[in-house]
Amino acid sequence: MAPPTPLLDRVRYPSDLRNLSAEQLRHVADELRAETIDAVSVTGGHLGSALGVVELTVAIHAVFDTPRDKLIWDVGHQAYPHKILTGRRDRIRTLRQGGGLSGFTRRAESQYDPFGAAHSSTSISAGLGMAVARDLRCARGACDDFHVVCVIGDGAMSAGMAYEAMNNAGALRSRLVVILNDNDMSIAPPVGAMSAYLSRLMSSHSFMGLREAAARMVKHFPRGLEMAARRADEYARGILTGGTLFEELGFYYVGPIDGHNLEHLLPVLRNVRDADDARPILVHAITRKGHGYAPAEKSADKYHGVVKFNVATGEQAKAPPGGPPSYTRVFADALIAEAEADPDIVAITAAMPSGTGLDRFAKKFPDRCFDVGIAEQHAVTFAAGMATEGLKPFCAIYSTFLQRAYDQVVHDVAIQRLPVRFVLDRAGLVGADGATHAGSYDLAYLGCLPGMVVMAPSDEAELVHMVATAAAIGDAPSAVRYPRGEGTGAVLPVRGTVLPLGRGRLVREGSGKRTVAIVSLGSRLADALRAADELAARGLPATVMDARFAKPLDTALIEQLARHHEVVITIEEGSVGGFGAAVMQHLCWAGLLDGGLKLRPMVLPDRFIEHDTQAPQIADAGLAPSDIVRTALAALGVHAQPVRVPAGAIA
Ligand SMILES: Cc1ncc(C[n+]2csc(CCOP(=O)(O)OP(=O)(O)O)c2C)c(N)n1
Q1: 574 touches ligand 1 (CB under 6 Å)
Q2: Is 191 helix (H, G, I), strand (E, B) or coil?
Q3: Are 201 and 173 in contact (CB under 8 A)?
Q4: Cβ count near 205 (within 10 Å)
Q5: Edge-to-edge, what's the strand order for the sheet holding 453-455?
C-alpha cells in the first residue's frame, strides 16, 4: 500500500514548494523518499541514485524558479523524485513501462526536463549552451534572465566531456551553477584520481562553520548570505572552501556541504542563486546513494538498479530458477576460459564491471581487468595501446556507449589495424531503458570500417565460439555483438572453437518450387526458425541461414541462396545500413539482383523505439516471426490464409 503523504499531496508543481518553511520542506522530502521507494518497488529502476538526491531535488525546486530556471540532471537516472514534484506523480508507477514515463529525463515529457539524457556527462555542456544562449539574447536586449543548474554525479565526473565543458565554462565566464552530487559511488565503486581528489576534499580539511563560509561568500557575492544562514553556524558542519582544481578551471567552488541537510542546502543555494558574479559556480554536495532506505544503504551496489521488490524487506523479485544464463554471464565465463589459457588476454570496462560481466573476470584476474571510469573514448585508445604491445585486449562496452568512442574505433584502432576485440553487450532493443540505450547502430557503424570483423551469435553457445574466435584474430580489430537478456538454452561447450572467418551456416534447407531463404544475423535466428515453421505449415518450406558474420560476409553461401531462391529475406536487430545493406550491396555488384530475385532486408524501422519490454519492442519494430511470414508471402504474391499455427510459433 502506498505510504501516507499528506504534505506531498499538496505539491503538484515546484511552485507549491516555494511558500513552505524549511521544516515543511523536510517533511516533503521524507514523503518524497517514501513515495519514490514505493513507486520503484512496483516498476523497478534506478532507486539508489534517486534516493541520494531527494533533498537536493526539493531544495533546488524550492529555491530556483523551475521551469523558467533550467534544471539539468546528468544521466537523468536519478530524476524520479524530480518527476514526482513536476506534475508527473500520477504516472510515476508507469516508469519504464510501455507507454509510461521514461526512466530518464526527456524534453518531450515535460517542460521541467529542458534537456534529455541517459548517457552520462552531458549536463555541463548542455547547460553552458543554454547559459550562452541566454547571455547572447540579453546582449541583444531580449533578456530572459534565467538560471541554469546542472546536477552531475561523481561517477559522471570521471568522463572527459565534463572537463571539456568545465574548461570552456571557466573561459566563457557565463553564469552557470553546477552541483556535484558526490556519493562516492558510480554504479560500481568509483575509480581514478578524480575520485580520490574528491575524497581528499571531503576529508583532509577541517570543516568550517557556516559563519566563516558566509564571510568568504559575502566577500565574493556582494549580496551575501541571508541572515538565516548566518545564524545557522551551529548546524554548519559542511561548508568548506577549497576545490583548487575547480577554481583553476574558473569555477567558484562552494563546499563540501551535506546534501541531505536542507538547513545547509537551502541557504547555500539561495546565495548561489543571488550571486552577482558572472563566474560559473560549483557546489560540492556530499550525499549517500540509497540514503534513507536501509536495504539500499546496506547493499553493496546501494540498489543502483533494481527489479520489483518488497518494500518492507527490500527483497527483489528473482527470475525463476533453472532458466538459461544471460549472454553477459556466458561471455564472462568464455573470456575467463580463454584467459586461463592465454596470459596476454586483458579486459577493459568503462564503469560497467557488473553490466558487462567483467566483475567475474576481475575476481579471477584482478591484474588483467581495467575499469577506466565512464570514459569510453579512453577505454578504446587505451586498448589500442595495449594491442601495440602484444596484449590481447577485450574492450567490453555496451553497443550504445561505444557510439561515444567512434573516432577512437576508426582512428586509433581500425586505421592501424590493431587487434582490439570489441565486446558489445545490449546490441539490439534493450527494453525498459528505451531508445537512448538501444544498441541499434553498431552493425552500421562497425560494418563500414575496412578490415573490421563483426560477429553476432545466434545463441549463447555461438557466443562462446565467437569469444574464442576473437581471441584468435591477431591481425585485425573484431567485434562480437549480442543481445540483452538470457540465452536460448543452448548447450554450452566447455571451451569455444575458433570459427572459420566469414563463414555462415545453413540451419535449415527449404524445398519446393516457390522458395524463400531467410538469412538471419544474430539474435533473430530463433524467430526466423519460428517463421520458417509457419511457412512450412503453409506448404512453403524455407531455407534458413545463420550468417554468424556481418563482416566479412559469407558471399559464397549468400550467392548460392540468391541463385536458388525466389525470395531472400535478411533479418537483423539493427538499423538500416548494417548487415542487410551489405548483403544487398554485394548481390547488386554480383549481378544477382538483375534477374528478378526478390530481396527483402528486414531492419529496425527509421524511428526510435520507445521503452517497453523487449518482445513488444520487437513487434513494434516489425521484426517478429509474423512480420517475417508476412514479408515472405507478400514477396511471393501469396495472400495470407489463416493456418493452424504450431504452439508458440508466432509472437
Ligand atoms: C556514456 C555512458 N556510459 C555509461 C553509462 C552507464 N551509467 C549509468 S549511471 C552510471 C553511474 C553514474 O554514477 P554517478 O554519476 O556518480 O551517479 P550515481 O548513480 O552514483 O548517483 C553509469 C556508469 C552511461 N549512462 N553513459
Answers
A1: no
A2: coil
A3: no
A4: 12
A5: 369-371, 345-349, 392-396, 421-424, 478-481, 453-455, 549-551
CA of 75 to the centre of ligand 1 (A): 6
Identity of the amino acid at 368: R
189 CA to middle of ligand 1, Å?
11
Q: 380: which 3 cell numbers?
A: 578504446
Displacement of CA 447 from its chain's centroid (Å) = 22
Contact 153 CB / ligand 1 (< 6 Å): yes
- Regions of the chain short of the pLDDT cut 70: 202-242, 640-651
Q: Could you tell me which residues are beta bridge partners of residue 601? A: 570
- Kindly give the distance from the C-alpha atom of residue 156 to the centroid of ligand 1, in angstroms, as a whole number: 6
**Ligand 1 close to Cβ of residue 178 (< 6 A):** no
Query: Using CA atoms, how far apart are residues 404 and 406, in angstroms rounded to an integer?
Result: 6
Q: Is 369 helix (H, G, I), strand (E, B) or coil?
A: strand
Q: How many residues does the chain have?
A: 651
Strand 543-546 and strand 505-508: the pairing is antiparallel
Place of cell 511558500: 19
What is the per-residue pLDDT for 193? 79
124 ligand 1 Cβ < 6 A: no
Q: For a substitution probing ligand 1, which of 47, 102, 186 has the most ligand atoms within 8 Å of its CB?
A: 186
Instruction: Decide if 567 contacts 632 (C-beta within 8 A).
Output: yes
CA atoms within 13 A on the CB side of 443: 34
pLDDT at site 194: 78
Query: pLDDT value at position 195?
Result: 79
pTM of the model: 0.93
pLDDT in tens, 97-154: 999 999 999 999 999 999 999 999 999 999 999 999 999 999 998 888 999 999 999 9
**In angstroms, how far apart are the furthest CA atoms of the chain?**
90
Q: Which of ligand 1's atoms lies nearest the C-alpha of 190?
A: 16
CB atoms under 10 Å from CB of 294, counted, come to 9
Would you state the pLDDT for residue 337? 98
Q: What is the pLDDT of residue 187?
A: 81
Rg (CA), the chain: 27
- Return the number of other C-beta atoms located less than 10 Å from residue 573's C-beta: 30
Domains and CATH numbers, the chain: 8-298 (3.40.50.970), 327-481 (3.40.50.970), 505-636 (3.40.50.920)
Work out which ligand 1 atom sits closest to the CA atom of 182.
16
Residue 117 CB–ligand 1 contact under 6 Å = no
Span between the terminal Cα atoms of the chain, in Å: 34
Q: Which of 74, 374, 399, 437 to mutate to test the pocket of ligand 1 (most atoms within 8 A of CB)?
A: 374
Cβ atoms 64, 269 nearer than 8 A: yes
Closest by CA position to 358, among listed 342, 343, 344, 339: 339
- Please work out whether the CB of residue 400 comes within 6 Å of at least one atom of ligand 1: no
Other C-beta atoms within 10 Å of 362: how many?
Answer: 20
Closest C-alpha among 174, 224, 182, 185 to residue 70:
174
**Residue 251, all three cell numbers:** 569555477
